[in-house]
Each structure stands twice: as structure tokens, then as C-alpha cells.
Amino acid sequence: MVLGSNEVVVPTERIEEWIDSVKPRRILVQAPLGLRNAIPLIINVLDRRGVEAYVSMSPTWGGCDVAVREARDIDADGIIHVGHTQFLASHPLPILFIEGWYSDPEPLLRLAPKVVELLRGYSKVGLGATVQWTTHLSKFADELRNAGFSVLIGAQEGIRIIHSGQVLGCDYSSLKSVEGNVDCFVVIGSVFHALGAGLVSDRRVLSVEPESQRATWMDDMVRKIYSQRYANIRRFKESRRIGIIVSVKPGQMHLGLARKLKSLLERHGYDADILITDEVSEPLIMESRYDAYVNTACPRLSIEDQARFSKPLLLPSEVMVAIGRLKWEEIIGKKIYLSLSLPEV
């Protein structure tokens, strides 16, 4: 399957093996917008094996956002989810995750001279990538080593990070595992993922985008985001009615965290309610009675989507700053910044 100028590998043999194991009669196929060209190939395999196939048209933002409810509604026996790796330890029905790797390393390797030039002045480089590029990380690392750099690829970390060097928009534990031994990071895939790395690390981060052939330091973007976020913290402090958003998406539901935040906010003089939703939308933010919100769903909503909302949408770590339990300097450039947990303070 070709995406842009590069072929995306969909391992049909894994689908065949999964069918042999699960023996489903009805399957829901789910993919993000950029990888939906893979769906006909998957349906062909299912049809050939006599499995009834349905396609989810709902957006999906990650392995945290699997269409379990839709599958249950149509009485499906399982889900084939394309483009992401497993996010949760278990699900209520069988799910096959198909990453969809890029087959051709050439667009990435072609950027090596530009990256080498931008890395002048550094000696130890940490390397990470979105899942679609992880199969080519070692080749790119060799290019940098041949240019004289010491290169470390982040480790596999826990359930979510199943490939060395893999980064998620909300999980940079792979990079953090080598942070103490590198001068800077190179993140391959997209500005979105590189920006997230820049927000949780005090190391400089270079974004490398093979599809657009761009390589960009994230410094200015990180500073801009921090400035915007701090302004929202100040606005939050002036608010009184707070809505704490809880998503019902399987990997984004943090009801226990929401309860802790509600108790904490009420002890500091705020009126706080817990709001349950599937998608965090403009009408939800704009039309309700709340002055500000706390986000316990996807942490990147507070970064990329804040501009769509006229009211502050704080992360849990930012709430701790707003109520005076932590200083701003204690969360920026740290893993805690995008964390959906409350620190012990």
C-alpha cells in the first residue's frame, strides 16, 4: 500500500495468523485518516477467509482510542486497528494492532547530510521515531555514527513502547531512558512528536520529517507553547467554576485522577464538576457554564487544541502550579509535564 511516495507495509500474514487464532465471524476495521488506504487490503483478506468485515468511520488518535464500543454495538468478535501499537495491557475483546511501517528508508537517509550539519557542535545524540519509522532507526543511527556522532536509541519501555526508540505523542519514556547520556535528541516522523519531546526534556530536540524533507530545531516552538500555557495558568487562577474533563475512550479514561483533582480544587476554593465525554469539542467548552477546564483525556488536547477554545484547558501538572503546589520551573522540561497523574508534593 502506497502512502505519498512511500509504501506502507501491511503484513497480511499477521492477519491470517490472527484469524487462525481468534476464529472470528465478524470484525471491525479501524484506521486513522492518513492510513485508511490500507483498509481495502485488510478487507480483501477477511473476505477471502469468510470473515464479515465492517469499517469504523470514527476518527482515531492513537492506540488509546480503539473503537471497542462500536465493535460491541455491531456484535463484532474483534478489531483490527491500523497505524498504532497496543496502548493498554488488555482489552475486552481481541484486537490486532498493525503498525504500518514505511518500507523504503531512502526518504529518511536522504536527510542525513542536513541533519549532520544541524547537529554540528553536539557529540552525543539520542534517537527516536514514530512507529512507522522505527524499522529504519538503526540505519539512520549508522549514518550519524559514520559522521562522528555517538548515538543512543531509546529503550523499549513497558507495554506502550514496544519498539526501541519508539515515541508516542504522550509517552517519551524511550527517550527519557537515555536523556542523561545525550546532548540532544533527534525525533523522526513529525513536528507533533518532536514538539512533545521538547516539552518533557531539557535537551534540544531536532524534528526530522522524511515525507516533507524538513529538519527543524524545536526551541522556538517549545518556548511559544510554554508562554501560551503559562498565560492559561494565570487565567485559570482567576476562574472559580471548573470542569474536569474525563474521556470514555479506553486508553484516555482517568476517572480516579479526576476525583483527586476535584477534591484538590475544592480544597483550594474552586467549584469543580467532573464532565464525561467521548470527544472534547468546541461546543462542550464554549457553551457550558464553566470558567476553565482540566484535561484528563489526551494531554495533547491542551497543547495543539487550546487555540480552538476561549477558556483555559489545563493539564494536571499545570493545575498544581495554578494552586501553588508546584512551581512552573518544576514541571517544564520534565516527564511530569504531560503526565496524567498527580505528583506527591
Note down, in words, how this protein is organized:
This protein has 345 residues and is an alpha/beta fold. Strands 9-8-10-11-12 form a 5-stranded mixed beta sheet, sandwiched between helices. It has a 4-stranded parallel beta sheet with strand order 4-3-5-6. Strands 14-13-15-16 form a 4-stranded parallel beta sheet. 32% of the residues lie in helices and 21% in strands. It has helices spanning 12-22, 39-48, 68-73, 106-109, 112-118, 137-146, 173-176, 191-200, 219-237, 255-267, 282-286, 301-304, 316-322, and strands spanning 2-3, 6-9, 26-30, 52-55, 78-82, 95-98, 101-102, 124-129, 150-153, 184-188, 204-209, 214-217, 241-247, 271-277, 292-295, 313-314. The chain has 3 domains: 2-102, Rossmann fold, CATH 3.40.50.11840; 106-217, Rossmann fold (3-Layer(aba) Sandwich), CATH 3.40.50; 228-338, 3-Layer(aba) Sandwich (Rossmann fold), CATH 3.40.50. Strand 10 (184-188), helix 8 and strand 11 (204-209) form a beta-alpha-beta unit.
